[in-house]
Known about the structure:
2 domains; two-stranded antiparallel sheet
Amino acid sequence: MEFWLATIIQGLVFAIMALGVFITYKILDFPDLSVEGTFPLGASITAALIVKGVNPIVSIIFAFIGGAIAGFCTGFLNIKMKISNLLAGILVMTGLYSINLRVMGKSNIHLFEYKTIFDGFLPPIALLLIIVILIKIGMDLLLKTQFGVSLKALGDNPQLVRSLGISEDKIKFYGLMLSNGLVCVSGAIYAQMQSFSDVGMGAGIIVAGLASIIFGISIFKKIKFMKFTTMAILGSLLYRLCIGVALKLGLPAGDLKLVTVIIISLALGLKINPKKFRLKKLSFNKKINLVSRREGEVNA
Protein backbone atom coordinates (compact mmCIF):
# COMPACT_ATOMS: atom_id res chain seq x y z
CA MET A 1 0.00 0.00 0.00
CA GLU A 2 2.86 2.38 0.81
CA PHE A 3 4.35 1.70 -2.64
CA TRP A 4 1.16 2.70 -4.47
CA LEU A 5 0.67 5.74 -2.23
CA ALA A 6 4.22 6.87 -3.05
CA THR A 7 3.50 6.30 -6.76
CA ILE A 8 0.39 8.51 -6.61
CA ILE A 9 2.33 11.20 -4.74
CA GLN A 10 5.00 11.16 -7.46
CA GLY A 11 2.26 11.33 -10.09
CA LEU A 12 0.86 14.48 -8.47
CA VAL A 13 4.31 16.12 -8.34
CA PHE A 14 4.95 15.36 -12.00
CA ALA A 15 1.40 16.49 -12.87
CA ILE A 16 2.58 20.06 -12.23
CA MET A 17 5.41 19.47 -14.71
CA ALA A 18 2.92 17.97 -17.19
CA LEU A 19 0.77 21.12 -16.95
CA GLY A 20 3.84 23.18 -17.82
CA VAL A 21 4.73 20.97 -20.78
CA PHE A 22 1.05 21.09 -21.83
CA ILE A 23 1.37 24.84 -22.47
CA THR A 24 4.24 24.46 -24.93
CA TYR A 25 3.37 21.09 -26.49
CA LYS A 26 -0.42 21.26 -26.79
CA ILE A 27 -1.20 24.99 -26.80
CA LEU A 28 1.83 26.72 -28.37
CA ASP A 29 2.91 23.75 -30.52
CA PHE A 30 6.48 24.48 -29.38
CA PRO A 31 8.81 21.49 -28.79
CA ASP A 32 10.60 22.97 -25.77
CA LEU A 33 13.45 20.70 -24.64
CA SER A 34 14.67 23.26 -22.12
CA VAL A 35 12.34 21.69 -19.52
CA GLU A 36 15.00 19.00 -18.98
CA GLY A 37 17.16 21.80 -17.61
CA THR A 38 14.48 23.83 -15.81
CA PHE A 39 13.24 20.86 -13.75
CA PRO A 40 16.61 20.42 -11.99
CA LEU A 41 16.93 24.23 -11.92
CA GLY A 42 13.86 24.38 -9.66
CA ALA A 43 15.33 21.64 -7.46
CA SER A 44 18.70 23.43 -7.34
CA ILE A 45 17.21 26.81 -6.40
CA THR A 46 14.96 25.47 -3.65
CA ALA A 47 17.72 23.26 -2.18
CA ALA A 48 20.31 26.07 -2.19
CA LEU A 49 17.86 28.49 -0.53
CA ILE A 50 16.61 26.03 2.09
CA VAL A 51 20.19 25.25 3.12
CA LYS A 52 20.71 29.00 3.64
CA GLY A 53 17.66 29.19 5.92
CA VAL A 54 15.03 30.47 3.46
CA ASN A 55 11.42 29.39 4.01
CA PRO A 56 10.56 26.34 1.82
CA ILE A 57 7.47 28.04 0.36
CA VAL A 58 9.47 31.17 -0.51
CA SER A 59 12.10 28.96 -2.17
CA ILE A 60 9.40 27.56 -4.50
CA ILE A 61 8.43 31.10 -5.51
CA PHE A 62 12.06 31.85 -6.37
CA ALA A 63 12.17 28.58 -8.31
CA PHE A 64 9.21 29.75 -10.41
CA ILE A 65 10.99 33.02 -11.13
CA GLY A 66 14.13 31.14 -12.15
CA GLY A 67 12.12 28.94 -14.51
CA ALA A 68 10.42 32.00 -16.02
CA ILE A 69 13.84 33.52 -16.73
CA ALA A 70 14.95 30.28 -18.41
CA GLY A 71 11.77 30.30 -20.51
CA PHE A 72 12.52 33.90 -21.48
CA CYS A 73 15.99 32.82 -22.65
CA THR A 74 14.46 30.10 -24.83
CA GLY A 75 12.05 32.62 -26.30
CA PHE A 76 14.83 35.13 -26.91
CA LEU A 77 16.92 32.60 -28.83
CA ASN A 78 13.93 31.54 -30.90
CA ILE A 79 12.19 34.86 -31.49
CA LYS A 80 14.92 37.49 -31.46
CA MET A 81 17.90 35.46 -32.68
CA LYS A 82 15.83 33.39 -35.15
CA ILE A 83 17.12 30.04 -33.86
CA SER A 84 14.75 27.12 -34.42
CA ASN A 85 12.55 26.26 -31.45
CA LEU A 86 14.06 22.78 -31.09
CA LEU A 87 17.66 24.04 -31.12
CA ALA A 88 16.83 26.96 -28.81
CA GLY A 89 15.49 24.51 -26.21
CA ILE A 90 18.57 22.30 -26.53
CA LEU A 91 20.92 25.29 -26.08
CA VAL A 92 19.11 26.49 -22.95
CA MET A 93 18.95 22.94 -21.56
CA THR A 94 22.70 22.52 -22.06
CA GLY A 95 23.53 25.90 -20.53
CA LEU A 96 21.32 25.24 -17.51
CA TYR A 97 23.46 22.24 -16.56
CA SER A 98 26.35 24.56 -15.72
CA ILE A 99 24.02 27.08 -14.08
CA ASN A 100 22.55 24.38 -11.83
CA LEU A 101 26.05 23.42 -10.73
CA ARG A 102 26.76 27.08 -9.99
CA VAL A 103 23.53 27.48 -8.00
CA MET A 104 24.20 24.44 -5.79
CA GLY A 105 27.97 24.80 -5.69
CA LYS A 106 28.27 21.04 -6.21
CA SER A 107 26.50 18.24 -8.06
CA ASN A 108 23.92 17.51 -5.32
CA ILE A 109 22.54 18.80 -2.02
CA HIS A 110 20.86 16.77 0.74
CA LEU A 111 17.94 18.22 2.70
CA PHE A 112 17.41 15.49 5.28
CA GLU A 113 18.10 17.75 8.26
CA TYR A 114 16.18 20.75 6.91
CA LYS A 115 12.49 21.58 7.11
CA THR A 116 10.41 21.33 3.91
CA ILE A 117 6.77 21.91 2.99
CA PHE A 118 6.10 18.25 3.80
CA ASP A 119 6.96 18.72 7.47
CA GLY A 120 3.63 20.40 8.24
CA PHE A 121 0.46 18.92 9.70
CA LEU A 122 -0.98 17.88 6.32
CA PRO A 123 -0.17 14.45 4.83
CA PRO A 124 1.93 14.71 1.62
CA ILE A 125 -0.88 13.44 -0.63
CA ALA A 126 -3.37 15.99 0.78
CA LEU A 127 -0.88 18.84 0.44
CA LEU A 128 -0.04 17.90 -3.16
CA LEU A 129 -3.71 17.54 -4.07
CA ILE A 130 -4.34 21.09 -2.84
CA ILE A 131 -1.33 22.45 -4.76
CA VAL A 132 -2.22 20.64 -8.01
CA ILE A 133 -5.90 21.66 -7.82
CA LEU A 134 -5.00 25.30 -7.17
CA ILE A 135 -2.57 25.34 -10.12
CA LYS A 136 -5.15 23.63 -12.35
CA ILE A 137 -7.88 26.13 -11.40
CA GLY A 138 -5.45 29.00 -11.95
CA MET A 139 -4.57 27.69 -15.42
CA ASP A 140 -8.22 27.17 -16.36
CA LEU A 141 -9.05 30.73 -15.33
CA LEU A 142 -6.00 32.10 -17.14
CA LEU A 143 -6.94 30.30 -20.37
CA LYS A 144 -10.34 32.03 -20.26
CA THR A 145 -8.79 35.49 -20.20
CA GLN A 146 -7.82 37.52 -23.28
CA PHE A 147 -4.23 36.37 -22.83
CA GLY A 148 -5.31 32.72 -22.61
CA VAL A 149 -7.45 32.98 -25.72
CA SER A 150 -4.56 34.65 -27.57
CA LEU A 151 -2.21 31.90 -26.37
CA LYS A 152 -4.49 29.18 -27.74
CA ALA A 153 -5.04 31.09 -30.97
CA LEU A 154 -1.29 31.48 -31.46
CA GLY A 155 -0.81 27.73 -31.42
CA ASP A 156 -3.76 27.08 -33.74
CA ASN A 157 -3.54 29.99 -36.18
CA PRO A 158 -0.62 32.48 -35.84
CA GLN A 159 -1.85 34.48 -38.85
CA LEU A 160 -5.14 35.20 -37.07
CA VAL A 161 -3.27 36.53 -34.04
CA ARG A 162 -1.16 38.82 -36.25
CA SER A 163 -4.25 40.05 -38.14
CA LEU A 164 -5.87 41.06 -34.84
CA GLY A 165 -2.88 43.25 -34.01
CA ILE A 166 -1.77 41.09 -31.08
CA SER A 167 1.97 40.79 -30.50
CA GLU A 168 2.83 37.20 -31.40
CA ASP A 169 6.29 37.50 -29.86
CA LYS A 170 4.99 38.78 -26.52
CA ILE A 171 2.42 35.98 -26.20
CA LYS A 172 5.05 33.34 -27.00
CA PHE A 173 7.44 34.86 -24.46
CA TYR A 174 4.80 34.74 -21.73
CA GLY A 175 3.78 31.20 -22.66
CA LEU A 176 7.35 29.89 -22.46
CA MET A 177 7.96 31.71 -19.19
CA LEU A 178 4.80 30.29 -17.60
CA SER A 179 5.55 26.79 -18.87
CA ASN A 180 9.12 26.67 -17.57
CA GLY A 181 8.06 28.36 -14.34
CA LEU A 182 5.62 25.52 -13.63
CA VAL A 183 8.24 22.92 -14.52
CA CYS A 184 10.62 24.60 -12.04
CA VAL A 185 7.92 24.51 -9.35
CA SER A 186 7.53 20.78 -9.98
CA GLY A 187 11.29 20.31 -9.65
CA ALA A 188 11.36 22.34 -6.42
CA ILE A 189 8.55 20.30 -4.84
CA TYR A 190 10.14 17.04 -6.02
CA ALA A 191 13.46 18.01 -4.39
CA GLN A 192 11.71 18.78 -1.10
CA MET A 193 9.77 15.52 -1.26
CA GLN A 194 12.89 13.44 -1.96
CA SER A 195 15.03 15.56 0.42
CA PHE A 196 17.79 16.02 -2.13
CA SER A 197 18.62 17.88 -5.31
CA ASP A 198 20.82 16.50 -8.06
CA VAL A 199 22.08 18.11 -11.24
CA GLY A 200 20.94 15.10 -13.30
CA MET A 201 17.33 15.06 -12.07
CA GLY A 202 15.96 16.32 -15.38
CA ALA A 203 16.96 13.33 -17.51
CA GLY A 204 13.89 12.05 -19.37
CA ILE A 205 11.53 14.68 -17.93
CA ILE A 206 10.31 15.85 -21.34
CA VAL A 207 9.44 12.27 -22.31
CA ALA A 208 7.54 11.75 -19.04
CA GLY A 209 5.65 15.01 -19.60
CA LEU A 210 4.71 14.17 -23.17
CA ALA A 211 3.73 10.63 -22.16
CA SER A 212 1.42 12.01 -19.45
CA ILE A 213 -0.27 14.46 -21.82
CA ILE A 214 -0.67 12.00 -24.71
CA PHE A 215 -1.81 9.25 -22.37
CA GLY A 216 -4.40 11.46 -20.67
CA ILE A 217 -5.81 13.02 -23.84
CA SER A 218 -5.97 9.69 -25.70
CA ILE A 219 -7.96 8.00 -22.93
CA PHE A 220 -10.21 10.83 -21.71
CA LYS A 221 -10.75 12.88 -24.90
CA LYS A 222 -14.26 11.45 -25.39
CA ILE A 223 -15.42 12.88 -22.05
CA LYS A 224 -16.78 16.22 -23.25
CA PHE A 225 -16.98 18.05 -19.91
CA MET A 226 -13.38 17.19 -18.95
CA LYS A 227 -10.81 19.96 -19.48
CA PHE A 228 -7.41 19.33 -21.04
CA THR A 229 -5.69 20.34 -17.81
CA THR A 230 -7.58 17.58 -15.98
CA MET A 231 -6.58 15.11 -18.70
CA ALA A 232 -2.91 16.04 -18.25
CA ILE A 233 -3.13 15.50 -14.48
CA LEU A 234 -4.91 12.15 -14.81
CA GLY A 235 -2.45 11.16 -17.54
CA SER A 236 0.45 11.82 -15.15
CA LEU A 237 -1.15 9.65 -12.48
CA LEU A 238 -1.85 6.83 -14.94
CA TYR A 239 1.67 7.03 -16.36
CA ARG A 240 3.21 6.72 -12.89
CA LEU A 241 0.87 3.84 -12.06
CA CYS A 242 1.99 2.05 -15.23
CA ILE A 243 5.61 2.55 -14.18
CA GLY A 244 4.70 1.22 -10.74
CA VAL A 245 3.09 -1.88 -12.24
CA ALA A 246 6.21 -2.48 -14.32
CA LEU A 247 8.40 -2.29 -11.20
CA LYS A 248 6.05 -4.57 -9.26
CA LEU A 249 6.28 -7.15 -12.04
CA GLY A 250 10.02 -7.26 -11.45
CA LEU A 251 11.10 -5.26 -14.50
CA PRO A 252 14.65 -3.85 -14.05
CA ALA A 253 14.83 -0.09 -13.50
CA GLY A 254 17.01 0.18 -16.62
CA ASP A 255 14.07 -0.97 -18.76
CA LEU A 256 11.73 1.82 -17.63
CA LYS A 257 12.57 3.97 -20.67
CA LEU A 258 11.47 1.07 -22.88
CA VAL A 259 8.22 0.92 -20.89
CA THR A 260 7.78 4.66 -21.49
CA VAL A 261 8.19 4.18 -25.25
CA ILE A 262 5.61 1.39 -25.22
CA ILE A 263 3.16 3.52 -23.21
CA ILE A 264 3.52 6.48 -25.59
CA SER A 265 3.13 4.19 -28.63
CA LEU A 266 -0.04 2.67 -27.19
CA ALA A 267 -1.38 6.10 -26.30
CA LEU A 268 -0.74 7.38 -29.82
CA GLY A 269 -2.33 4.21 -31.20
CA LEU A 270 -5.49 5.01 -29.24
CA LYS A 271 -5.87 8.17 -31.32
CA ILE A 272 -7.01 6.07 -34.29
CA ASN A 273 -10.68 6.80 -34.94
CA PRO A 274 -12.54 3.46 -35.05
CA LYS A 275 -15.29 4.92 -37.26
CA LYS A 276 -12.80 6.08 -39.88
CA PHE A 277 -11.05 2.73 -39.76
CA ARG A 278 -14.40 0.97 -40.21
CA LEU A 279 -15.35 3.20 -43.15
CA LYS A 280 -12.01 2.54 -44.84
CA LYS A 281 -12.46 -1.17 -44.29
CA LEU A 282 -15.98 -1.11 -45.77
CA SER A 283 -14.76 0.92 -48.74
CA PHE A 284 -11.95 -1.58 -49.32
CA ASN A 285 -14.42 -4.50 -49.17
CA LYS A 286 -16.69 -2.77 -51.69
CA LYS A 287 -13.77 -2.39 -54.09
CA ILE A 288 -12.92 -6.09 -53.72
CA ASN A 289 -16.54 -7.05 -54.43
CA LEU A 290 -16.68 -4.75 -57.46
CA VAL A 291 -13.48 -6.23 -58.90
CA SER A 292 -14.79 -9.78 -58.31
CA ARG A 293 -18.08 -8.94 -60.03
CA ARG A 294 -16.31 -7.48 -63.06
CA GLU A 295 -14.05 -10.54 -63.30
CA GLY A 296 -17.17 -12.72 -63.21
CA GLU A 297 -18.80 -10.76 -66.02
CA VAL A 298 -15.64 -11.01 -68.16
CA ASN A 299 -15.42 -14.77 -67.60
CA ALA A 300 -19.10 -15.14 -68.47
